[in-house]
Amino acid sequence: MRTLYHFWISPACRKVRLALSEKGLEFDLKIEKPWERRPGFLAINPAGEVPVLVEENENILADSQAICEYLEENYKDVSLLPQDKIARAETRRLIGWFDRKFFVEVTDNLVEEKIMKRLTKSGTPNTAAIRAGHHNIHYHLEYITYLVERRSWLAGDDFSLADIAAAAQLSSVDYLGDVPWEQHPAAKIWYARAKSRPSFRAILGDNLPGMPAPSHYADLDF
Amino acid sequence: MRTLYHFWISPACRKVRLALSEKGLEFDLKIEKPWERRPGFLAINPAGEVPVLVEENENILADSQAICEYLEENYKDVSLLPQDKIARAETRRLIGWFDRKFFVEVTDNLVEEKIMKRLTKSGTPNTAAIRAGHHNIHYHLEYITYLVERRSWLAGDDFSLADIAAAAQLSSVDYLGDVPWEQHPAAKIWYARAKSRPSFRAILGDNLPGMPAPSHYADLDF
């Protein structure tokens, strides 16, 4: 069976889980705690990062975008990138926006400080970083609003990897209850539509012992 | 004419300049100072980041990897990704490594602190960050050594976007004279081979007034 090494709150792992599910590909999940730097895991990914996908034929793939491009090239029944070349570039621009810009400006400031530091016992949360995360998220929700006022989904007419990349980041932050949905109703409607897809079920069922999700997290009519 | 909005020391811009040159595509360079947040520039890229490529037909492309994937899909005379699917995934894994991991652990700590803070007048260099950058670069040069002891180029038999992504980051740091080449001779030989390619000429000719490059920067026999 195909195996995904992941850590539940990691947005990069959530992105790959969503992409696999959207494509109807079955996989086992194995939890990996990258901060433990387990030798067996470093042997399959020297970057020491999740996600890592091990295919049934033992091929090993790492880096969320490398994995998603591989899935796109190999499993074509369901496309998560459009066919038109300019539309593909637009989709990848937005994937980069959420994987990199949203992650650095929002997710890393909130999830890293509030959850990962506690799990890894690596110091006390940096309140300046948390403040920055809370501040920055508005700008990103406004950008999502701008996009969905002009398009059905973030990158165009169809649900794509751009929606997956964005929803993966937001779902991690939403686990903390830190997404100010009420102030951004159009972004909330987009997220509700994404979250209603069957591919989201497993992610909405995630629950860390001792750190329960807020009640709206898994609620489709939040 | 095709136009690339760039800033000379940005590794993401260098990556696209190298990819365009390797593919033999002509382009004009326009310097953009992203920190000035010029309205005309924000209108073409709301992320406010370089590089941005404007094609002759006025199509606008942003995000270095989105641009490189677009170039790969549209200009096939010279391939910068291998044909085999697993080899493509391996190449993209390494692109992610250098674009993201090397950038965060090395380039951002050194180039941001030593050059960008001076240019943007945004505070004094953070000496802890600079120390971290100097420390972390050894690990990355060791990883390059590991790769080139097993392969002709970083991702396999052929020069690829992985070499471009890595050399783009290293060339930015090398402009500061901060790459400890003498301690990593195999990585140095790989970089010398990359740097001798005609695509590197323009980058090695870069010179910022008041911040001259060290003498070995443009020297092919450094």
TrEMBL record, chains A, B:
InterPro entries the UniProt entry points to: Glutathione-S-Trfase_C-like (IPR010987), Glutathione-S-Trfase_C_sf (IPR036282), Glutathione_S-Trfase (IPR040079), Glutathione_S-Trfase_N (IPR004045), GST_C (IPR004046), Thioredoxin-like_sf (IPR036249)
Keywords: Transferase
GO biological process, one term: glutathione metabolic process
All residue ranges annotated as the GST C-terminal domain in the record: 84-213
Domain GST N-terminal residues, every copy: 1-79
Database matches in Pfam families: GST_C (PF00043), GST_N_3 (PF13417)
Record-level Gene Ontology MF annotations: glutathione transferase activity
UniProt feature coiled coil, ranges: none
Superkingdom as given in the UniProt entry: Bacteria
Signal peptide: none
Classification via Gene3D superfamilies: 1.20.1050.10, Glutaredoxin (3.40.30.10)
Quaternary structure note: Homodimer.
Name of the molecule in the record: Glutathione S-transferase family protein
Lineage: Bacteria, Pseudomonadati, Pseudomonadota, Alphaproteobacteria, Sneathiellales
